[in-house]
Amino acid sequence: MQYSEIVMEHFKNPHNIGTMENPDGVGQVGNPVCGDMMKIMIKVKDDKIDDIKFETFGCGAAIAVSSMVTDMAKGKTIEEAMHITNKSVADQLGGLPKNKMHCSNLGADALHKAIQDYLDRKEGRVRRRPDEELEHISSHDKHCYCPYCDYDQPEQVAHCVRCGKPTVEHDHD
Amino acid sequence: METIYFDHISGTTIHPEVKKTMINYINEHYGNPVSQHQLGDAASAALEAARQQVARLINAQPGEIVFTSGGTESVNHAIKGVAMATHDKGKHIITSNIEHQSVSKSLRMLMRMGYRVTSLSVDKYGVVNPKDVERAITKETVLVTIMHANNEIGTLEPIAEIGKITREKGVIFHTDAIASVGVIPFDVDEMGADLVSMAANQFYGPSGVGALYIRPKTRILPIIEGGMQENGQRAGSENMVGIIGMGKAAELAKSEMPERIKHLSQLRQAWIERLTTIEAIDINGHPTNCLPHLVSFSVNFVEGESMILMLDEKGICASTRSACASGSLRASHVLIATGCDYAAAQGTLIFSFGITNTMEELDKAIAVLKDSVVFLRNMSPLYKKRAAS
Question: Which of A66, B11, B250, B335 is geometrically suited to a Cys-Cys bond with B57, CB 3.0 to 4.6 A?
């Protein structure tokens, strides 16, 4: 496996695993078809991320990214946390194999989604149903990232819309 | 840390006697079998002896065996070689949805050249219905290519029945028997196949060497052109050391097969029993009509690569076909073809046992697997969701 030592360390001993009571914001991205699913929950106090937890279904890189992105966001202001990027997460992990870059995208996306959810709630957008957070998120379920250039694909497409490499295998197309 | 190897489907270990034979050969021989001098004669004799050993393994004649660089080349040769030789007859090929990429990608290339390919679906165990093959054959059909044993789920296909049909219809029949030849009995006449692909690294021989069985009078052209090696079917100086190893491995596979199958079946059964102690695990493939040494199982709510990493940390080597591990972001086409859902396919592991594996190794592995599954399910949103409902 071509993972860095930092990735393996975070994979073996991930930080901030779990769930929380009454989170202030929840962000969930990915789906099992793409291979990864990530859910980040935040508690916000004085405009700072006071507590953060994640749940992830995914490969070693996805788990390491979840651990790293939650570490990076913890204690940060909302503003600062919104500036955490896919690239900064991957860099902090000592890099990721090319075909795993999409995992770092999921990490920052899930975090930003959780913050967005927090902001939505703060502005008084009342959730109609207790499970609406999942509805809100499911619009992103179709997203897959190119394993070669980690471009966010608009839909499930056979070939990356940017680099043209196959994102999925079609054996008899 | 002790290594426990449960990935024999990716390539077996090399049998000590095979190793010895190969080393002896390197030490004593260097001639090219086509040379007209004594060193060439010695190499030629060794080559033909190996050919005989491989032929015996599948009840064929030595002249029907063409050595190749491995299973993938054998498959490419069979499919493209037949297409080139028969393009005047028709451009229709029949295959299944669960073939190895060496088959499906060779066919995809032919499709770009105007070939029509009928890909048959399989049942929930991954079995092709021979009647579907019969129905799919048209006047245009030049080749049927269906694998013998599936390399991901271990299911055996009804090759003998399909062979009967293709013979009656006069269509060439290739079977990718890479996962089965040398593991379980394979008789080319019983199977009725005209072309059979095989690889040495599935039966304790080296990687990088395989063979293609070609039934006499089968219309096929070589895909590698040059000298007249391999009866004109495969040009290029032979990989002598590899071939010598494959020959010895074939001889051992034939003589040791009954006891190997017994041992491997016991391991397989014991592993399945151990797996039942973990909740929400599905065993894939046909329960009885299958390879004796392979278990494909889906651990629900977790992803395969992360389990492989955790097992690897403890020295246990196995395989997964999860999308994440594939680099193509797509779950195994074989599992999807059998109706397995995407999430379960992502959590699929393949354990394939070998003759040196022991029950103690299974005990160690199941303990590590259990810990890994608990650890990963504990952080899985899918598992939490299921627990909540």
Answer: B250
